[in-house]
Amino acid sequence: MNHSATILDKAAIERTLTRIAHEILERNKGIEDLCLIGIRSRGDVIARRLAQKIEQIEKVSLPVGIIDITLYRDDISSPQGGQPQVRSTKINFDLNGRKIVLVDDVLFTGRSTRAAIDQIMDFGRPRNIQLAVLIDRGHRELPIRPDYVGKNVPTSRDDDVKVSLSETDGEDKVELMSKAR
Which stretches does UniProt call biased (Basic and acidic residues) (predicted)? Predict the structure, then answer.
């Protein structure tokens, strides 16, 4: 029997993103040379939301890019055994010398983050890359640590963390899906 529990509701996600936006501004001493890049398919939505919050605070808009890491993954495969679905990457600004905040919904093993960093480095040489995640669920397989965390959620390897966002799923919530043990 499977069990699900809501970790964050709409209001909690909103508060969490507001806090992360302030932390990004504080750590970077403002927005000079700052940009956000979201990992498809929900990190890009979270990056746009963070950019909106930062714009409300600083009254200046930040460049926001989107990357699809499909071809950079080391565990590439599709459920049907065919070709993986690759979607577009959109980075319409120079990354050289920029402070990049890489944004994802859930940090698990670190493999998606590694793939995203590899792809970013193919676009240019940023000053630094910081990592912002809505949920950190642990179980790292690579030495990757987020700079900004919405919520740390202890999980077992068999659990699933499901992030739903209104732009892609019709509602905002984060659920922990636990398998019966």
Answer: 171-181
Give strand ranges (E) for 108-146: 128-136
Q: Where are the domains of the chain?
A: 3-69+88-178
175: which 2 tokens?
């659920």
d(CA 3, CA 178): 5
Q: Which fold has domain 3-69+88-178?
A: Rossmann fold (3.40.50)
3-state secondary structure of 116: helix
In tens, the pLDDT along 15-42 reads: 999 999 999 999 999 999 999 999 998 9
The single residue listed with the structure tokens 């504080």 is 26
Whether the Cβ atoms of residue 91 and residue 102 lie closer than 8 Å to each other = no
